[in-house]
Design a protein that fits this description.
It is built from four helices and no strands. By secondary structure, the protein is mainly alpha-helical. The protein has one domain (1-160). Helix 3 (83-122) runs antiparallel to helix 4. It is globular, with a radius of gyration of 20 Å. InterPro entries: DctQ, TRAP_DctQ. It is found in: Cell inner membrane.
């Protein structure tokens, strides 16, 4: 399988593959954790204390580590119902629009989560049952959504200048 970014931005190409690998490991760990939790709960009547918190936080990591890879591979869910009616120019325009809107939305989302991360760090926010610090998971959201926005912006530039970098 060829990587959609190619050699244009090698560090993102390498980083998103590593991040997707980490996301797969987190997801596998979550599956083992759920299986162990079910065995503990139903076979031994001893549920894992704080299991839901662990799964919620692991879910944040799994999603944030996999979003950049899904973006570079163009693997997000999309509906192509009108693609035939729009034609090549219409599809290019809608691709440009969804990427541009995405960059703007991700800018505000990332900015908001930077503030949340700093607040959670300053006030030492923790989860209810296990007292796990929350700020690293907010930082994961900043990282994942920020990289997602960078990739979308790069895709906009490459769609405008398909033969090479702008002069």
């Amino acid at each position: 399988m060829t990587h959609k970014l190619g050699a244009r931005l090698k560090w993102i190409s390498r980083a998103d593959i590593w991040l997707a690998t980490i996301a797969c490991m987190v997801l596998a760990g979550m599956m083992v954790f759920v299986f162990a939790g079910a065995i503990m709960r139903y076979a031994f009547n001893a549920p894992i204390h704080g299991g839901n918190e662990v799964l919620e936080l692991a879910s944040v990591a799994a999603v944030m580590f996999s979003v950049p890879y899904c973006t570079t591979q163009d693997a997000h869910v999309r509906i192509d119902l009108l693609d035939g009616a729009l034609g090549r120019i219409g599809r290019a325009l809608t691709d440009f629009m969804y990427r541009a809107i995405g960059v703007v939305v991700l800018w505000f989302l990332t900015k908001s989560y930077i503030d949340r991360t700093l607040d959670a760090y300053e006030f030492e926010d923790v989860t209810n049952m296990l007292d796990i610090q929350i700020w690293p998971f907010y930082a994961l959201i900043v990282f994942g959504m920020g990289l997602y926005g960078v990739i979308l912006a790069a895709q906009i530039v490459w769609s405008l200048f398909p033969k090479g970098t702008p002069s």
